[in-house]
Amino acid sequence: MDVLDSQINELAEEETWTGYLFPSLQGETPYVTRDTIRNWFQKLASKAGLPERIEGEWPSPQLCRRFWYDTYTAVLEGVDEIAAEQGSSDPQVVMQNYLSESRSRRVRREFMRELLDEAFGEKT
């Protein structure tokens, strides 16, 4: 979030900023198109040595988003035991009724931090 805030602050200081996070310095539109972002992503995936297909799909921002949400919501599996102790078969009950919103968010973030550390081999 700090990097995003810094980028927005830097862009906002420019008189010509149009409000787009990925402004285009060329062409007729003041922003970079979805196809351009997708092309950048494909180049990044190639540079990173990703396989051409992951589970039958080309690497894409949507595939990464799906991974993020699948992994982020997997934290619910981690509270299955707690739910069972409370007499509930649904871990959502624990997340919604027994944890504060901020604690629930923190649990999910800590879980993601561990998984990303495993995936990338670095502290996040």
From TrEMBL:
InterPro entries: DNA_brk_join_enz, Integrase-like_cat_sf
Top-level taxonomic group: Archaea
Keywords: DNA recombination
Gene3D superfamilies, sorted: Intergrase catalytic core
Protein name as annotated: Integrase
